[in-house]
């Protein structure tokens, strides 16, 4: 039997059909400094060029044998398109600084969502990157897009403390604002779907129970995420980092094809709570595992994720680009070694 | 001058104002404390800060989360702004100076602001550099102010690495400066590896750590 292509492997995984081996991919940035150096560019120049964005994703995937390419890398594309600006740190002496949003709206009254945001700022550039990836990888590589969830997006465009205090003090207006952000997230996700990506991760990373109570999550986060997942027709992943043990069942009720959690989640318990039929992705600490650890320790981390019951080993967040090459190789090899057995939700050919 | 029972009542009301994040109540009872001759520093420590300690317990019990903590902090600041100008400086143990900020590349400052509150309550002179602060600014400000502590936070892994460089630069120039790190990606291992003297790994934990420190400060002030 011929091996599946990376794209087929990912597509089948999302359909919970038998695959040959566990795909090596993520729903978040997976660019590495090794790929950037091979291209002869700087990290700061990756975000403003479709060719660099696509090239760095493709080069990383090829270099390490990843099954997918994911762009963009920074969380500012939509805020920038809404007129909040962008700090690129192009002149900084630091090798790796992610772009940030320099001017958030100071009050809810100032919020003014640009209806044409998909054509503003770097949004067309990201579209071009997807088109390049599609043509250059000959449909062989999986293609992943991501959009921040409504609450996290809100925190990117308005001061977080206004938002967090507002959910208690100014609930109606905050809910209306989050409704606007939900429409925005749906518009962006449906747009990426139209570009032909294989899956979309919605990263509601600012809503874990380190910040919000489960009760607040149920009323403020869950319903908006459900609307987002209802609107997308291709496979989706509901990703939240930080503490998720207390909200994992509610996350599962939002309707995504898969759940993605970070290293704070107890996957063994999560599996018991949601059952074997739900796709769970996770849950290693990308910085600790791929930057800090000795390469010899990586295999055990990956094996534990699989033993605990994930259907795909995902990092809990973006890969920190300055990974150790040998650690990434150990991570890829470990999935190759332990990913051939069936997982709770997905069988093997 | 308030008698013992009245003073106790004022302290309880100040604490309640913080716990119930009632800014009007914090204002009213801080003014009451002053008008009835309660020592301002005592009102801060045994009223407002005691309330914040209870808030820490509510956070531990998962009754309160970050939105509540932020509102409690707002109520505390309302009281602090009223009471602080009236502190008898001779009776206060001088706690020193601190430089605080979030490192370049990070625009999240909730954890930083909560830690700042702890220093404010504790009687430190705080030099707040804000957020997205170039690394060399921490070093320059520490040298300029001769601060005892430099506190930096990064909410994301993507900005954490800058802190290591700041620690190196500061320790080279002044090894006695205490460095505190905070933020979601900062673990004990990272703090140790970077050469820091203390850490808190989330906004929530920053609050817990800050509240513990407030508790320690209250004990110290009582002993002195």
Task: Give a structural overview.
The complex is a heterodimer of chains A (349) and B (224). By secondary structure, chain A is an alpha/beta fold. Chain A has a single domain (6-14, 23-338), classed as TIM Barrel, CATH 3.20.20.210. Helices cover 46% and strands 10% of the residues of chain A. Chain A has a seven-stranded parallel sheet. Chain B is of the alpha/beta class and 224 residues long. Chain B has two domains: 4-92, Methionine synthase domain (Methyltransferase, Methionine Synthase (B12-binding Domains), Chain A, domain 1, Orthogonal Bundle); 97-206, Cobalamin-binding domain (Rossmann fold). Chain B has nine helices and five strands. Chain B has helices at 4-19, 23-35, 40-60, 66-83, 110-121, 135-145, 157-173, 188-194, 203-223, and strands at 97-102, 125-128, 149-153, 178-182, 198-200. In chain B, strands 2-1-3-4-5 form a five-stranded parallel sheet, with helices on both faces. In chain B, helix 2 runs parallel beside helix 4 (66-83), helix 5 packs parallel to helix 9 (203-223) and helix 6 packs parallel to helix 7 (157-173). Chain B is globular and about 55 Å long. Chain B starts with a helix and ends with a helix. The model of chain B has no long low-confidence stretch (mean pLDDT 81). The A-B interface holds A 87, 89, 92, 94, 96-98, 100-102, 104, 160-161, 164-165, 167-169, 209-213, 216, 242, 286-288, 292, 317-318, 320, 322 and B 62, 65-68, 70-71, 74, 104-108, 110, 113, 132, 135, 156-162, 184-185, 187, 189-190, 193, 202-204.
